[in-house]
């Protein structure tokens, strides 16, 4: 997928939000979009997904099936989580079994009968993630997917990203808190002052021979902080139990 | 596209936004048929004209009920043309249900004078509603948030359009072709004699051309402003 000199602004007389964006995303690759709040990461991701249209330039080679996880899931809808996902599955032509599969995998079973408006931010975000994955996407666009997610759900996202890329799909994911720099094999783009810069890749992921597995028990109430702290120290968190 | 039509209707009805236009329809029908029996053509001509702004409002409420981000998700799922068409079809389904209720209502209150041209009056009534509904949906769609971008501008478009349909539709108007033939149809059905086939064909062609222009504009604006 190629960004060919893409410019974008939200209104005809407004300043350009993005200027002269030129980049390529290869099949099977992951790109992490970095940048401060308001830099234009969400705009770039929405252009990539096809939600927004460039003011100038073009985006070519976008896969037919795009899964988009918006920054804020639109929870103001009079459906339960399960009903919403079933309707989205019908809309996207996904099999009914895909709904149950993603409800189970994203630990949404106990929330399937809860109205979207009553879900916590993190649970609503999981519903947003599930709808994007009902049909295996050729392009998965994740806009701050870690926002509000609990530690267990956070560990699922690298696995999901890996599955999409292993199937030849592309993944674009934004992160303003630097939580996901450890995604293995990911390229990094930084959005600043309306322009896009490819930044240096993070250190190569350690091989299995370099690593040992240390099992750590932490208080349940401190699990989130512990996972974040371990990741920030460059360690890989393989899972959270209990 | 059918799942999106069903999803939008369900979201509109379950969210309670359908209640206000439903009350408006009941009030209008009470006013139209509360004063005694009229010939079918006359009663239904008024009914179609009176329902025009309500159906336009209902369409705007229906399309605005869905959050902007959900509309974008739907567009990614089935494509921009089918997403926009599904909104119009959802409005059409609800509007036709309103028309059926409006045409059945006078029979509950003896509001139709069955001695005067009943069969022709019924047929003309169906035609009058069928001419009014697509135009009303087009106005509501053009006033929707997806096109106007703001609630204030959307309400302005809706109110100004409804007023212009009446004002420019009056007999002797300087530019009657700027608006759909809602008032012209009501006048044709309220005449001393039933309208001729030529007159009906003219009104139908006028409505079809107006709706084609309005929906083309809606499609262009949706494409440009998404």
Question: What can you see in these coordinates?
Answer:
The complex is a heterodimer of chains A (242) and B (226). With 242 residues, chain A is an alpha/beta fold. Chain A is 29% helix and 20% strand. In chain A, α2 packs across α3 and α2 runs parallel beside α4. The mean pLDDT of chain A is 87. Chain B is mainly α. In chain B, strands 1-2 form a two-stranded parallel ribbon. In chain B, α1 packs across α3, α3 packs antiparallel against α9 and α6 packs antiparallel against α9. The relative contact order of chain B is 0.15. At the A-B interface, α2 of A face α1 and α4 of B.
Features:
A: 242 residues; Rossmann fold; 6 helices; B: 226 residues; two-stranded parallel ribbon; 10 helices
Structural class determined from secondary elements of chain B: mainly alpha
**CATH superfamily placement of chain A:** P-loop containing nucleotide triphosphate hydrolases
Please report the distance between the alpha carbons of the first and last residues of chain B.
19 Å
What is the string of helix and strand elements of chain B? HHEHHHEHHHHH
Write the CATH architecture name of chain A. Answer: 3-Layer(aba) Sandwich
Q: Tell me, what is the CATH class of chain A?
A: Alpha Beta
Largest sheet descriptor of chain A: 6 strands, mixed
Number of helices of chain A: 6
Count of DSSP strands of chain B: 2
Helix-strand makeup class of chain A: alpha/beta
What's the multimeric state? heterodimer
Number of domains of chain A: 1
- Please indicate the count of domains of chain B: 1
SS strand fraction of chain B: under 5%
Topology, number of strands of chain A: 9
**Tertiary shape of chain B:** globular
Compute the separation of the termini of chain A in Å: 41 Å
Largest beta-sheet characterization of chain B: 2 strands, parallel
| Average predicted confidence as pLDDT of chain A | 87
């Amino acid at each position: 997928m190629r960004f060919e000199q893409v410019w974008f602004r939200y209104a005809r007389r407004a300043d350009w939000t993005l200027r002269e964006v030129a980049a390529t995303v290869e099949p099977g690759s992951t790109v992490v979009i970095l940048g401060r709040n308001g830099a234009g990461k969400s705009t770039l991701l929405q252009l990539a997904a096809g939600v927004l249209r460039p003011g100038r330039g073009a985006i070519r080679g976008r896969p037919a099936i795009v899964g988009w996880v918006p920054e804020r899931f639109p929870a103001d809808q009079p459906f339960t989580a399960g009903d919403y996902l079933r309707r989205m599955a019908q809309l996207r032509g996904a099999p009914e079994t895909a709904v149950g599969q993603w409800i189970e995998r994203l630990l949404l079973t106990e929330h399937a009968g809860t109205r979207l408006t009553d879900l916590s931010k993190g649970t609503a975000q999981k519903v947003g993630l599930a709808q994007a994955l009902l049909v295996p996407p050729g392009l998965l666009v994740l806009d701050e997917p870690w926002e509000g997610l609990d530690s267990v759900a956070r560990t699922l996202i690298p696995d999901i990203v890996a599955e999409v890329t292993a199937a030849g799909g592309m993944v674009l994911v934004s992160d303003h808190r630097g939580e996901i720099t450890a995604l293995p094999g990911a390229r990094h783009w930084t959005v600043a002052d309306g322009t896009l810069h490819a930044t240096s890749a993070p250190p190569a992921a350690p091989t299995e021979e370099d690593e040992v597995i240390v099992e750590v028990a932490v208080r349940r109430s401190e699990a989130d902080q512990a996972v974040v702290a371990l990741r920030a120290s460059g360690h890989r968190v393989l899972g959270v139990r209990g | 596209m059918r799942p999106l039509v069903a999803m939008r209707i369900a979201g509109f009805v379950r969210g309670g936004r359908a209640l206000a236009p439903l009350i408006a329809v009941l009030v209008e029908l009470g006013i139209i048929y509360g004063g005694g029996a009229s010939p079918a053509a006359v009663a239904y001509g008024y009914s179609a004209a009176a329902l025009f702004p309500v159906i336009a409002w209902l369409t705007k409420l229906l399309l605005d009920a869905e959050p902007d981000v959900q509309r974008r998700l739907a567009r990614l799922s089935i494509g921009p043309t089918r997403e926009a068409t599904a909104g119009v079809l959802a409005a059409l389904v609800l509007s036709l249900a309103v028309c059926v209720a409006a045409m059945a209502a006078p029979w509950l209150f003896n509001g139709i004078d069955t001695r005067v041209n009943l069969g022709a009056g019924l047929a003309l009534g169906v035609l009058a509603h069928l001419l009014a509904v697509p135009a009303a949906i087009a106005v509501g769609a053009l006033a929707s948030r997806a096109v106007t971008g703001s609630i204030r501008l959307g309400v302005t478009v809706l109110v100004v359009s409804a007023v212009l349909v009446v004002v420019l539709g009056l007999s002797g108007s300087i530019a009657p072709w700027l608006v759909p033939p809602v008032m012209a149809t009501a006048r044709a059905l309220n005449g001393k004699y039933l309208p001729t086939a030529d007159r009906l064909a003219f009104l139908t062609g006028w409505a079809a051309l107006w709706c084609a222009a309005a929906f083309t504009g809606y499609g262009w604006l949706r494409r440009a402003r998404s």
